Structure formats: C-alpha cells, structure tokens
Amino acid sequence: MFSEKFQPSPAxxxxxxxxxxxxxxxxxxxxxxxxxxxxxxxxxxxxxTATSAVCVTGLVVVDTGTFFSxxxxxxxxxxxxxxxxxxxxxxxxxxxxxxxxxxLKGRLVIQEALNQITLSGLxxxxxxxxxxxxxxxxxxxxxxxIRFSQDVGLLRGLYxxxxxxxxxxxxxxxxxxxxxVGLTPYRDDFVVNTVIMGLFIFGGLGFTVIVDIYTRGxxxxxxxxxxxxxxxxxxxxxxxxxGIFILEYDNPATLGELSFVEKIMPAxxxxxxxxxxxxxxxxxxxxxxxTLFFMLLLMFIGASPASTGGGIKTTTFGVLxxxxxxxxxxxxxxNLMNRRIPYHIVLKGLSIIVIGLIVVGTVTxxxxxxxxxxxxxxxxxxxxxxxxxxxxxxxxxxxxxFGKGIIIVVMFMGRVGPLTxxxxxxxxxxxxxxxxPEERVLVG
Amino acid sequence: MFSEKFQPSPAxxxxxxxxxxxxxxxxxxxxxxxxxxxxxxxxxxxxxTATSAVCVTGLVVVDTGTFFSxxxxxxxxxxxxxxxxxxxxxxxxxxxxxxxxxxLKGRLVIQEALNQITLSGLxxxxxxxxxxxxxxxxxxxxxxxIRFSQDVGLLRGLYxxxxxxxxxxxxxxxxxxxxxVGLTPYRDDFVVNTVIMGLFIFGGLGFTVIVDIYTRGxxxxxxxxxxxxxxxxxxxxxxxxxGIFILEYDNPATLGELSFVEKIMPAxxxxxxxxxxxxxxxxxxxxxxxTLFFMLLLMFIGASPASTGGGIKTTTFGVLxxxxxxxxxxxxxxNLMNRRIPYHIVLKGLSIIVIGLIVVGTVTxxxxxxxxxxxxxxxxxxxxxxxxxxxxxxxxxxxxxFGKGIIIVVMFMGRVGPLTxxxxxxxxxxxxxxxxPEERVLVG
Lengths: 444, 444
Ligand SMILES: [K+]
Ligand SMILES: [K+]
Hints:
- With about 450 residues, chain A is mainly α.
- Chain A is built from 19 helices and two strands.
- Chains A, B: Pfam families: TrkH.
C-alpha cells in the first residue's frame, strides 16, 4: 500500500544511496582496526572522513597516511571509488553481474546519476565507464607505483600507486604521503605531477565526454556538450595557471624562491587542482588572501557535469556566460557553436548558481561566528567543502563540533548537487496547467 | 554625414551625460575656493569625489565636512541631486522649461534612464518625480534642520538639514557632520535615524514605485513591479536588521555595550544602510569580518530599479529566486503573484548578476595585490563602490593612485549599470535572423 503510493524520484534514490554508503563508511572507520594506533576514531570524525571520501571531497580531520591502518586506508579508497565512479554505476554493475534486466525505473535512476540526456545506450555507457576507469586507473597506478617504489620500496610503492591513482581519477584529493603535507614533497616531480594532474583533469571532464572522446575520436564529430566541456576546461586551466603564476610570483612562502621556469609546474598544478581535485604541491595556508579568493572562485565553478569533480560545473557557468553574451547582443536566443540551448537548460544553470551562492554565503556567515578562525580561512573551507575540492588552509581539524557537522552537510549537498537535492525535496513534473498573463518587472 | 550615420543608443547618451557631469564636478572641486583651507584638492581626489557624488556612492578620500568650503559642499550637494534624481530627469526639466516638445528620441532616452516599460506618460512621470522629490526633501530638510539647530545654531542647522536631506533621499551617503565619523554622534537619536532612514528607503524604492504609491493608493491596484519591490524591500530590511542584531550582539566595539532595546535602532540602521545608502551610525571598521561579509552580500543586491540606490537591484535577485522556485517545482514558466515573467527579463536579470560577480571578483583580486590592505577591507570597498553604497572600513583615503583610479571606474560602472554599459558598448537589437537547431548541454 505504502510502497505503491510512494514513488521515489531518481534524485531521491541517489540521495538515499549516498547516505547509506556514508553510514557504512562511518561504521567501518570507527572500528579500532581502522586506526594505526588501535585507538578508534571518534564517531563524528569517522562520519566526517566517510562523508569526505564518499563525496570525493578530500577535507580531513586526521592525516590519512599516519592515522589510519592499511584497513582504514583501504576502506577510504573503496569509499572514494564508490563515490567517484558513482554508486549508480556500481548499482548497474551489480545488476549486470546478477544478469538481471534493467527496468525503466532503473534506467531513469542511472540517467539522473550521470545527468545523461537520453535513456538509450545507458547500459553500454555504464560498461564503458567501468572498463575505461579500470584501464586508466590501472595504468596510472603502475606508473605512480614504480615512481613511489624508488622512495618507499616496491610493495608500499605499488600500494601508494593504487591509492593515489584512485584518489586522483576520482578527484578525491586524499593522499597517504603522511605528515599532513599533501603532495608538497613531490612539488617538482614531473612524473607525479603529470600523472596525478592527467588523472584528475580527465576524471573531471565527465564520463559522457570521456566516452565521446573514446568513441568519436575527432572533435568535429563530438556532441555540443563534449566540445563545450573541452573548450571550458582548457580555458579554466589556462586562467588558473596564469592567475596563480602572477598572484604568487613574489610570495617567498610559495613560488617566490623558485626560478621563472621552476614556478611553472607548481603554478599549473595549483591552478588545475581547483578543478576540485584537492591535491596540493604547495602549502595552501601560505597562499596570499587574494590568491585564496581567486582559487575560491575557480573552486566554486569546479569541474564538468557527470564527472568525479564537484562545484557548480564548468558548463553551468559557461551556459550563463553564453546567455549574457546573447543579451548583450540584443537577442533572446542563447546560441552556442551554431546550436540553440533550450530555455530550461539556462534556467537550470541559473538555479544551480543561485542556490550555490546562497548556501555558501549563509554557511560562511554562520561559521565565521561559531569558529574562532580568520574569515578568509572559513570562507575558503566552506567553498572547498561545497565544491568537493578538499583544499584547506589547515583549519579542518580545529573546527568545533558544530563546525564539523555543518561542513559534513555542505560536503554532502555539494556532491549530491544543489539542484538534485532541490528536485529530491520538491515535487517534480508537477507542471501547472494554468498559464498566467504576462507582466514585466524592472530589473537592474 | 557623420551625425546621420552615428545613432547613439539611449544607453550611450546616459553614459556620456554622466561623464560630462563628473568632468564638470571635477573642475569645480579642484578650485581653491572649493577647499576650506584654500589649498586645492589634487585632480585625482577631485575626480574621485565628483564621481562618488554623481554616482551617489559616498566613498570619500577627504572628509566632506572639514575639507571642503561651503562652496565645495554645495557643488557636491548639486552633483548628488543631479546624479540621484537622474540627470535625464534634469534634462527633461530643461526641455519642459524651454517649452520644447519631447521627441521620440528624447523619450527613449528617458525611458532608458528610468528603466520604464512604456513610452506613454513619461513627461507626466518626470514632473511627478521632481515635484515629489522636492516636497519630500523639503519637509525632511526642515525636520532635520530643526534637530541639527539644537547642536549648531539655526542657519548652520538648516544648511545641514538641506545637505543631509538631499544626500539621504539620493542614497548618496555624504555627510558634513565632520571629523570623518559619519553619523555616529547621532547613533541613538530617534529623529535623525528615522528621517534619514525614511528618506533613503523611500528613495531606494524607485521613482515608478513612488509614483505608483502616490497615484494608486491601495497596494492591490499597484503594478506587479511595485508590489514586488515593496515585498522585497520589507524582506531585506528585516533580514538586514536580524543579521546585524545577531552577528554584532556581543561585539564590544559596536552593539555589545548597549542594552537589548538600545541595540535595536543602530542594528536596524546598519542593516538598512546596505540598501546602498552608505550612512553609518556605528563604526564600519569595528564590525566583525562575518558581519562585513553579510553586509557585502546585501550591498551587492542593493536597492530597487530606477531608484537613487545602487547594487544589482532587489528585483533582479528576486526574479532569479522566483525562477529557481519555478525550476524546483518542475515547471519552466516563471510565475509571480499570478503573472508570468517574460523569458528575456529573467535573462536580463541573469546577465546583471553574472557581470556584477565577474566585475567585483576580478577587481577584488587585482586590488588585493596592489593595495597593502587586509583582504576583507578591499573586498568590502570594491562591493561598496560597485553597489554605490559608500560604506568603508576606512581604507579609501589610503588607496594607491592605481587603487583610486580603479575604484572610480567601478563606482561609475556600478551606477550606470553593468547591463546599460554592456548595451552601450554592444550593438543592440541586432537580432540574428538565423534560428539554430536546438541541442542540449549538461549543467550542474
Ligand atoms: K576533491
Ligand atoms: K550611497
């Protein structure tokens, strides 16, 4: 009776699925065997870590490399893989393994998870995603493993390769280098830089784009969405690099002491990591306030849709820019690359940015009151959580219980997506039959 | 030949008119007689002050009450009146006085200036604006004059009444109390608080709303725009009051030492002044960083369209919220109070907020590098300039030459309106005849 009346929307199924994963992770990470010392993590910190892993955020209250046992680290790695690859893809895998047919309901859920446009070809897409992910992560794990082996021996090196490969492709930002210094020991290491960046940039493009690249080959034949994502990603990488390079050029705590050429790689990495990867090769806390603000804006925009990355998404911001251009030109149709973008896509993009601004603004004001921290550090932390970035000026472990609780909620909201959450809470497709008469209001 | 080919748009006429007013003001304020000491103001500071007055911003590099002679203060007062009442309304007045008929071109310019919807009734509206403004400012000047007379004598008191009445109704935020302390000596003065607030809130509603109130009487009969403005203004006043009251409750440098009841008036004033009035009864530099951020968000939203206030405007933000609500409900029509808001109004609102965010973000990052000031103070200053607010943590006079130049440009852009500027620069009504095929991109 109840089950017939209650028809959960795809978005609602997504939200509940993520919550179950987080709960499972919290229990496992609270166990004494998850801790290196045997002293178990507090339930709140376990919840924080599990949420951060499932939401591929990367904010940490304890250092992943030193606090957790191998068991704890493997749990985190699996949570990242499940959260990053998408638990819906996982669900599809289970369906396939069990040999069951996918129902229309099941397809709709996957469609929501991947933010895909058509229902057709979803099973094929899911298979492609998993195969591609495993190949990419496997190759990268091997390269990283060989590199790390030089420092820590073969077995430990390969283990580190697997962990960082999964963490990077999933844009999770968790590292097990230890000492809470992130990837700073590898700041000038070409192999680690290029492999890690390659993984998180590729993962941040979104599955549909990756599959489009894989199946179409030439850019000309790709879908509008794929071309737009590649263009925007290139622009944001260049803007990020130039911004960091210029803003930190003279900062003695970051790039100041390096030669012109030496500055290039850390500047590019720091700009690129705002695509919500969350790894850092220079100390985030040493960056200048203006640089943090610059990164914060890029972090808010984030990666591309249906990807392992977060933020409001490159295309969301891109569509709004295209709409602004249309208005400036005096037209009311939003055209991009000789194609017209539908009205409701623009409205959806608008909703995402407005909800994002409200969430980030409100939470920042509240936490600036409750946390005894510099305003900019709080602001940065909130955007980092919302964009599932994981960069921090170092205040995460110093947050109050209230602050940790709020950041947990923001990480979750940031990953599930403001709009998906809004759709899950609201009633969808309840389109009113009434068409009201038009009346203008003045804006601007 | 040239004059036939070059058809300036209404927006371009507006921009040029404002520039001429600023230039005139700069020359007058550079004269030795404009200075109380006879030592003339530097050209840059004169330009800064003239821009601040014409754009009714209120940021000052020298204290208006002590640096300027009565001549200088009267120049500023006239620049404020011209900029606030709108130089286009002034132009209309000149037309009327000269007995000339208003051409269609002239009407279009006025329409742009007031952001009005129809061409009809513009002359009547302009007359109403001027008469209403003079009555309101006159009555308020008298009340304020009597109050100030108690402190400084009759003649000086009435003069101060006129200056502050014009400055308040125009949302200019200039004061001649002296000593660079704003209206802090009148923090607990009921008359000064209510009259000043009444003036700037009323002025910030926008001329069309004021005329609508004046001619229709009942709220029910008013235009959708007027009802929306009144609703949003009420909401922002309540939110502003509650925010300041809560955030500053314990701050010993602002509300902390006051009793619960005593906190109410300064909290309300500080919340209301973010409607881009720019007056302050408590020291802005003593507010907590979180409070500054809260005020900064309200300042960015600002007052209502076609008003003396600035910001992206209450209705711009309001329309976007309504659009977000529509998307959450699953529809694609943006309905408000049983009326449908046209697509292009939503797009226009979207453009204004996106351009505003880009301008504020970019300028803040640049100035955070060039100015040797705390990041939050720079951020606050930029939003204050863009929203033509005039509140400052006290860094205005300490800005570098480059910083002052940039703030001048931002004040101008903030007043002329990002969109008007964009329209003035771009080619309008150049609608393409080509209708491209529709293709979706993923957002969010
Ligand atoms: K991340
Ligand atoms: K002002």
